[in-house]
Amino acid sequence: MNELFPVEIIGAEAMRQFGMKMGEQLKSGDVVALIGDLGAGKTHLTQGIALSKGYGGEVTSPTFALVNEYLAGVDGEVDLFHFDVYRLEHPEEMLEIGWEDYLDRDGVVVIEWADKFPELIPAGAWCVAIEHVVSKIKSTDNQESLVEGRKLVCEMLENS
Known about the structure:
Elements: E1 7-9, H1 12-25, E2 31-35, H2 42-52, E3 67-70, E4 80-84, H3 91-96, H4 99-104, E5 108-112, E6 126-138, E7 144-156
Parallel strand pairs: 2-5, 2-6, 4-5
Antiparallel strand pairs: 1-7, 3-4, 6-7
């Protein structure tokens, strides 16, 4: 997966498309730990991952539900378990909603705001940091303008 990174992305649709590319490389048992400010594109990235796993329904951030399950419904595809821990204050709260059980299930786990509880992110997880950037682009008439985008970097968490 490291060959996809670093990358700069402009726009929600481009973020979803990149999520699809990422998702094509994810397999059951993989964990994706997303880090980024509000509005960074974590949910758009997850939408693309869900599409790549055969889920065709709506994908929303589980800010209040804490976890959404996106079941592929197609043989050979992988389920996706999408966590958003923005509203949680203690790692014990993640354990109470079954974090460890989800890690043991067949599927890909994506967690938004993973940096809140780094001690619960397993070794081998893909840590994706998303930051706001401003890029210069040239139009067809060679005029430069500034566009807000996102820069994504990724690393696999090593065994501790």
